[in-house]
Design goal:
The chain is α+β, with helices and mostly antiparallel strands. The protein is built from four helices and 14 strands.
Length: 337
């Protein structure tokens, strides 16, 4: 009985240990705004290798709480190059940094930081593997450590599905020589074959209906005394419908009304009248004779005004030009028709 009891206790302890180890390894978030909550003193994680030539780092974020006192963090890494940082969750103030490298033997590094009050902390792991093998890390907390109890949004049981796809496609070169990422070709789903309509007795009624219609047409044509032939002939032109006597009288009356009588003449077409340039009638003229025999004859229609200023006759024309003639040289000035 004692031996059986001991075996059962050992089995229960082993199952509990497996559950404890499996729980921290399940929740891994790559989003800083939604870190994975830490509810035990140990975190176990795995980082899959990226594509050949991909220089990016894989990031994991965890949330836990720290109480006043010395917080101890022990990191054990294998086949990983990267950093582990601890900073506050609200102000993002850095508190601790551990740098680790991939060596032949696993590395174990322990650091501590003193906390003055209780606060929520964020732990970030960013690393990559130097080869095509998976890398792993194990983080143990001690001292002023407390499991996460709330205060910030977290990702409950968030698993990174990117690692599975990356590990499945490892070894494929997805980057060019210049570092440009090459998109993977889209795999289109295979088209599903079209469903064939079942050949049942449902297809027979249309044939029967066609036969019945053809037999009815034949019987009707036989009753009328006409014979049907399968050869197609050009259709004869339809004769124009005969007009009734009333329609004929109406059309004749319309023709009489529209036809012009012999006495009536068609209206004469008016021709456009061309306007001849109107010449202004001859009117009065301004005549000025000078002593030297010069005679100035200007139609009054072209003269705007005639003014005498300081012994000078000023003739202002409608064109804007003006003429000045001294009165001492004028023999005669008159306005005549």
């Amino acid at each position: 009985m004692i031996v059986k009891y001991q075996h059962s206790v050992i089995l229960i302890l082993a199952l509990g240990l497996l559950l404890v180890l499996a729980w921290p390894a399940a929740a891994q978030s790559s989003d800083q705004t939604l870190p994975s909550p830490v509810r035990s003193e140990e975190i176990v994680g795995r980082i899959a290798p990226l594509d050949l030539g991909d220089p990016r780092l894989t990031r994991r974020f965890y949330a836990f709480e720290g109480t006043p006192g010395d917080l101890l963090v022990t990191l054990n890494s294998r086949n990983l190059n990267g950093d582990m940082d601890v900073f506050t969750a609200v102000t993002f103030r850095p508190l601790m940094k551990i740098t680790f490298y991939a060596t032949n033997t696993p590395q174990t590094i322990t650091k501590s930081v003193f906390l003055h009050d209780r606060q929520v902390l964020i732990l970030r792991v960013e690393a990559r593997t130097p080869n095509d093998d998976d890398g792993s890390y194990q983080i143990r907390f001690g001292g002023a450590f407390a499991p996460f109890s709330g205060g910030i949004p977290v990702a409950e049981n968030a698993e990174s599905s990117n690692e599975e796809s990356r590990s499945a496609d490892r070894g494929a070169n997805r980057l060019s020589s210049a570092g440009a990422r090459i998109e993977r070709p889209l795999i289109e789903p295979a088209p599903q074959p079209a469903e064939k309509a079942p050949e049942t007795a449902n297809a027979s009624p249309p044939a029967k209906a066609a036969r019945t219609t053809s037999t009815k047409g034949r019987t009707a044509s036989r009753r009328r005394g006409t014979t049907t032939t399968r050869t197609s002939r050009p259709a004869a032109p339809k004769a124009a419908p005969r007009k009734s006597a009333a329609a004929k009288t109406k059309t004749s009356e319309e023709k009489k009304e529209t036809a012009p009588t012999g006495s009536e003449k068609p209206p004469a077409v008016e021709k456009p009248v061309t306007q001849e340039p109107i010449t202004p009638p001859a009117g009065a003229h301004l005549i000025i004779e000078e002593k030297d025999g010069t005679r100035i004859d200007r139609p009054m229609s072209t003269v705007r005004r005639v003014v005498i200023e300081a012994g000078t006759i000023v003739v202002v024309l409608k064109t804007g030009r003006s003429e000045r003639i001294p009165m001492s040289a004028v023999v005669r000035m008159a306005i005549e028709p």
